[in-house]
Amino acid sequence: MARIVYGVSGEGSGHSSRAREMLTHLLGRGHTVKVVSYDRGYRNLEGDFDVFETEGLSIATVDNKVSVVRTFTENLAKLSEGIKKLRELRHVAFKDFEPDAVITDFEPMTAYLADHYDVPLISLDNQHRMRYMRYECPPELRTDARTTETVIRLMVPRPDASLVTTFWFGETKNERTFLFPPILRQEVRQLEPTAGAAAGILVYFTKGNDPVLELLRAFPRERFVVYGYDKSEEDGNLVFRPFSREGFLADLARARAVIATAGFTLMTESLFLRKPYLALPMAGQFEQELNGLLLAAGGWGKNVRNPGVEAIGDFLYRLPEYRARLDEYDAGDPAAITGKLDELLAADGQRVKAMKREH
Description:
Layout: E1 3-8, H1 14-28, E2 32-37, H2 39-45, E3 51-53, E4 61-62, E5 65-66, H3 68-76, H4 79-95, E6 101-105, H5 108-116, E7 121-125, H6 129-132, H7 142-155, E8 161-165, E9 177-180, H8 186-189, E10 201-204, H9 210-216, E11 224-227, E12 233-235, E13 238-240, H10 245-254, E14 257-260, H11 264-272, E15 277-279, H12 286-298, E16 301-303, H13 309-317, H14 319-326, H15 335-358
Parallel strand pairs: 1-2, 1-6, 2-3, 6-7, 7-8, 8-9, 10-11, 10-14, 11-13, 14-15, 15-16
Antiparallel strand pairs: 4-5, 12-13
Helix pairs in contact: 1-2, 4-5
């Protein structure tokens, strides 16, 4: 069995949700795993796994747009604490633990230490689609695409194998990259989706998006169930719900459709449940732009960069068309990625060690 360091990005809940499924599988196979995460990832995992809390990067937003200035200043403020944590991490997770392999879900400290200590590195995330998978990119986004690929290289410098989760399967750029269906929470896989005539439309914005809520008031016959504002009240056709994992999943299962930013986790869960999706990608986040483009290319929903009443109305009018396409959506085999992990990590990680030597 292998000794594994597993780095998990703490941004949002998608990384830790995916890591929970992988960690449960790895521990069930008898591997010894030390998890490294921060912020929400640490909070989501520390009660059930051996987790080292590190410092991590964060992205600051204002009015649904990435703020470069705030992102820079907020991360700069963490610099001294981050250096201290890096030194501690070197001893706890590498010098003392002596891992056979490192898995990183877009967590940079573990990736750089794997390179420093010459330990085989496996990236397991959805971000590496933008580095190692070919896709059609419109001209106006090509500069952002190149910038994003550079950022990914900086975050994860030299993966020896890349396990990429995606709902759109393009050609890979090398033989060390493997594409797999999205990793979904067991709670989502166990849901029984419904969508009756009286069902509402789920709306979710993690940072708040008041202008879009105002646009939704132009559709008084629709009922919009809104999460992300952490309050419980009704305001016309807007029904606000406080945070609740169980409540959110129940509303997702019975929703007629979903309106949200173009984050990977909610989008893939919605596709699995056959829910038409109106994607409002956050400006300045190329991954969300790409998610929205691929969603629209699949015919499973609509991608809108500058929302207005007309665009929302068009989405609502075309719901039957999207549902018909979603009936053909293939959620894939959830065991495929765990099978590849088992192959790479068998016999103390001999396969991934061989890939590192070849790399």
